[in-house]
């Protein structure tokens, strides 16, 4: 008989019942080849003595083994491992058979602000200068909870727990249509609108539908890295167009278009990432004209619409595009709370329908309950009140932050006061190594990135986006004071 | 002067201020070519008279136009459309320039139970026999709300609104590890686990990482259509293997393997979709053996684990796979609430890491707040209590449903009592047209599908999954009585 006393390990503290543990132990012995087809199992009496288990527990385990098809009971003889089981070889941890090696090029990249371990972020006691995150302390979570309570009390409230619609809640799409017309002259119907999991999903869907491996897409020399990665994932080639103080250089784009067919242009015309520049109206119009002439799509990433401090912001390209070449991508997430992923894509109904179908393949639908709660917050004006309130606070923070940068860092940091967005694009003096800076800062209790996130194959600035929005005034003072000492 | 009185339409009831409306009207006139570069705008006095607006409102609008770069003020002359604007042609709704035609084959499909319009589903007053949805009336939404309140009251609660982790909350991954070990002998660490938006996203990620256009994947002759669509979307070819009463026929698979390299096999070994059969232990072991020998991955879709009524369910293939060829996909969504998309994928850490990276491209991360609330529900045992309670209710519903099918439909419907799952696979007599049936039923207030969702290029049964779980006993009686009358 096998040394069952050592082979079978039971955990009496577990809340899984002992007979199931025993049954699973036998399954392990069978599947790792210790027990072979036709082998006899010990009698219930013997096993009961060896393990100290009640005989009934052993009987239950054997019954379970039989009912699961691992063993058979032969009258007057006992219990045996099923004779017709295929032979199983003995190789417990053979990793040489791994087939799960990846086919597509590994594209893992790190956002320096997203810790690998939760402890890094969620129990943080250090100051962080992030790259432009909102301050979740301002999120009106109580209002969201109130909406949740109100929905769950309604007689039809549980319907929002059922399967819903890949294109998103009709209520939220209607609320967004009104909101977009009012705030940015973007007049669309719910058929033009897909609710996404943040603006990220909008870019992903658009890229998947527009691009294939042989295609080209134009992006900025400096660009949002996650978007670059999405485009690369389709296999398409990236053509990099310079970006200056007036946004992407559309004259250069035109020269490229004369040589090369491109399927799409990706732009962040408002507060370009990472440099925060806004594209001039002249270039916007020329880009629309080129799109018509050369027949390409414009992916307009306007995730930052809500954060514009001075004059009224430019209306989006999508609002002045009469040829319907623009796929417009927006975010609610960024303004409300990053973890409650909600954004939207606006395009032709046919494109929205195809995007919804792809979205259905990916994750079927969004969170209907959250979408319903957000619609109510738009309807009762709380969402816009929150936006206005945050904007006012962020403006104050921007002003203080830039004032300190100006007065105490002007010899080492070159920057412009951003018209909008949540970060200051800061180019450091070449004598400062950002990687050293980041490491020294960490030791002094200040978390700040090393800038590598903004680099790509041709754009290697000695720069950082310095996020001011998630820090209150005291924290701004403290963190910049720390930064000054480190430099 | 242009007929501004008719060209400019203002809505005094809108909550967008009049000067912005006026400004946007001018932008429209400029972008549609009615106003050209260099054109003079009417004086503030003239426009004030024409529109009835206060002169200051007109002034504000003009200032806005100037600040947005659409117009320029020339001293002593007035306001003009910016002279350096590129010429804009006049074509308001020219759709001939549309470039957003899709490249990839359109793959829109319909789930007959997911209405195109919300009114169809959310305000439903008709009885529905769905294809096996849970009853959201059983969802313990109050417990979820309690967790939300409790989290939002904690001093660190707002941290769950920040950016989180593409792999999912560590707390939930830990809770799931304990739960999976206890319930199905699946012993893994949090590194093996990715939290997904429902099992759908698990299948999508696995397919994207495993398959490319020239690859082959084996699936059942009858199969879950969404999975088929996901695999097709990668460009891979589907090889269909017969499925009988003991699950996929692994002997046939072996013959295919001798001829053709395949990258992966997709199986639903527990309650196969749509036919609800469970794969025999013998075939499971043989499949694992073949995976090792022929080096392919097994995508084990076990979305239905929690719904098994009679004996203890088989443990998953993933629990007895020593060669790590299995990618295991599970669902919480299906048991808790379909709209709160939460599932998981279990695989080798390297595969999980790559899947997390791809997930980050798609939508960055899940809903950290929901994940945290779910972890608490696992930790305090409420989740399992809910599972047990639903299981008991669903078993009663299954028994009643099958009893009625047996007593009143035995001449027209062929079925077996399912060991688990939320639906009865029902093959109708060939004299009955399911499409006619569905239409007649709709007229009588019973929503039931026409079965086309289960069809594919070689599987065309006259069958339907009849879902019993979302109906209470009275509704079961009513809906089957209606169905009987219609037949």
UniProtKB/TrEMBL annotation, chains A, B:
The species this protein was found in: Chryseobacterium soli
Q: Which PANTHER family match?
A: HTH-TYPE TRANSCRIPTIONAL REGULATORY PROTEIN GABR
Q: Which InterPro entries match?
A: Aminotransferase_I/II_large (IPR004839), HTH_trans_reg/aminotransferase (IPR051446), PyrdxlP-dep_Trfase (IPR015424), PyrdxlP-dep_Trfase_major (IPR015421), Tscrpt_reg_HTH_GntR (IPR000524), WH-like_DNA-bd_sf (IPR036388), WH_DNA-bd_sf (IPR036390)
Q: Which UniProt keywords apply?
A: DNA-binding, Pyridoxal phosphate, Transcription, Transcription regulation
What are the protein's GO molecular function terms? DNA binding; DNA-binding transcription factor activity; pyridoxal phosphate binding
Gene3D superfamilies the record matches: Type I PLP-dependent aspartate aminotransferase-like (Major domain), Winged helix-like DNA-binding domain superfamily/Winged helix DNA-binding domain
SUPFAM superfamilies given in the database record: PLP-dependent transferases, Winged helix' DNA-binding domain
| Family that this chain belongs to | In the C-terminal section; belongs to the class-I pyridoxal-phosphate-dependent aminotransferase family.
The protein, known as: HTH gntR-type domain-containing protein
Would I find DNA-binding among this entry's keywords? yes
């Amino acid at each position: 008989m096998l040394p069952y006393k050592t082979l079978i390990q039971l955990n009496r503290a577990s809340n899984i019942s002992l007979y199931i543990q025993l049954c699973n132990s036998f399954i392990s012995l069978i599947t790792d080849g210790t027990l072979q087809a036709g082998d006899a199992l010990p009698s219930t009496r013997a096993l009961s003595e060896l393990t100290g288990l009640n005989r009934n527990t052993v009987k239950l385990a054997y019954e379970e083994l039989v009912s699961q098809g691992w063993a058979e009971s032969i009258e007057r003889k006992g219990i045996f491992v099923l004779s017709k089981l295929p032979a199983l070889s003995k190789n417990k941890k053979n990793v040489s058979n791994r087939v799960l090696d990846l086919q597509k090029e590994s594209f893992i990249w790190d956002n320096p602000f997203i810790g690998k371990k939760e402890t890094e972020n969620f129990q943080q006691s250090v100051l962080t200068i992030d790259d432009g995150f909102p301050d979740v302390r301002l999120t009106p979570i109580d209002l969201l909870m109130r909406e949740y309570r109100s929905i769950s009390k309604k007689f039809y409230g549980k319907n929002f727990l059922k399967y819903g619609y890949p294109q998103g809640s009709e209520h939220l799409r209607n609320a967004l249509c009104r909101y977009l017309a009012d705030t940015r002259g973007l007049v669309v119907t719910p058929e033009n609108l897909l609710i996404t999991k943040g603006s990220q999903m909008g870019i992903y869907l658009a890229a998947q539908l527009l691009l294939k491996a042989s295609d080209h897409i134009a992006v900025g020399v400096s660009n949002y890295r996650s978007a670059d990665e999405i485009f690369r994932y389709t296999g398409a080639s990236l053509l990099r167009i310079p970006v200056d103080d007036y946004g992407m250089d559309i004259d250069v784009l035109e020269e490229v278009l004369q040589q090369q067919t491109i399927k799409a242009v990706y732009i962040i015309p408002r507060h370009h990432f990472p440099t925060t520049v806004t594209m001039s109206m002249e270039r916007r119009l020329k880009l629309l004209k080129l799109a018509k002439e050369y027949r390409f799509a414009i992916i307009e990433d306007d995730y930052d619409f809500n954060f514009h401090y001075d004059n009224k912001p430019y209306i989006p390209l999508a609002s002045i595009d009469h040829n319907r070449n623009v796929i417009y991508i927006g975010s609610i997430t960024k303004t409300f709370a990053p973890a409650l992923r909600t954004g939207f894509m606006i395009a032709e109904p046919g494109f929205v329908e195809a995007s919804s179908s792809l979205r259905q393949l990916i994750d079927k639908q969004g969170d209907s309950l959250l979408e319903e709660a957000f619609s109510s917050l738009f309807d009762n004006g709380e969402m816009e009140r929150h936006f206005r309130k945050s904007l006012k606070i962020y403006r104050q923070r921007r002003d203080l932050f830039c004032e300190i940068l100006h007065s105490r860092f002007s010899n080492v940091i070159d920057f412009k006061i951003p018209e909008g967005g949540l970060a200051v694009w800061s180019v450091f003096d070449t004598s400062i190594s950002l990687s050293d800076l980041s490491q020294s800062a960490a030791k002094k209790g200040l978390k700040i990135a090393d800038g590598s996130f903004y680099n790509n194959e041709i754009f290697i600035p000695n720069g950082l986006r310095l996020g001011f929005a998630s820090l209150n005034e005291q924290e701004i003072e403290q963190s910049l004071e720390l930064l000054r000492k480190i430099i």
